[in-house]
Amino acid sequence: AVDVFKGVISQTRNIFVAIDKKIVLLSGFELLEWPEIKIFETTCEDFFGDAEIHIERKISTMVGIYRSLGPLLVKLESITCKASTGEAAQMRDYYRACEARVLKALIQMMLSNLEYFHEEVMDHVIIPYVETAFKSTDELIASSTDQIKLVFVRFLKNAIE
């Protein structure tokens, strides 16, 4: 009986650890980290197009991680409550706590990504590019400033969605 109890404790501990690792992994996702940006080798539109593809891949991975939490929670429920509905009353508070932790992890991830975007992309890529366009007497370069703004706004809208 003691060995069975130890086994149950070990299984639940392993599930808790797996859930914690997945939530920590979600909080540390770097959606906006790319290889070194070579501003003169790409257009602003191409840069943000590549960035969107990169983000979509990472978000797909994040969704997979989030979805993998469900089976772990159901397994925990089956061990502790002898049910496998994902709705056991005894687990309700734990499910809410997990969702709150996931939400907090996602907020933390978004904030760190926005900080990175501001510090790395805005300060080192977009702002110098736009400043150059504003200073230029070349009509083609100066007129591209509005296009840069539109691409940037579209990218931010898509990233937030």
Secondary-structure topology with pairs:
Layout: H1 2-27, H2 44-81, H3 92-135, H4 139-160
Helix pairs in contact: 1-2, 1-3, 2-4, 3-4
Identify the notable features of this structure and list them briefly.
single chain; 161 residues; mainly alpha
- Number of distinct helices: 4
Query: Mean pLDDT, as a whole number?
Result: 80
Query: What separation lies between the terminal Cα atoms?
Result: 51 Å
Strands, total number: 0
Ranges where pLDDT stays below 50 over 5 or more residues in a row are none
Strand content: under 5%
Characterize the structure shown.
The protein is mainly α. The chain is about 80% helix and about 0% strand. The protein contains 4 helices and no strands. It has helices at about 1-25, 45-80, 90-135, 140-160. Helix 2 (about 45-80) packs parallel to helix 4 and helix 3 (about 90-135) packs antiparallel against helix 4 (about 140-160). It is elongated, with a radius of gyration of 23 Å. The protein starts with a helix and ends with a helix. The model has no long low-confidence stretch (mean pLDDT about 80).
Explain briefly what this protein structure is.
The protein contains four helices and no strands.
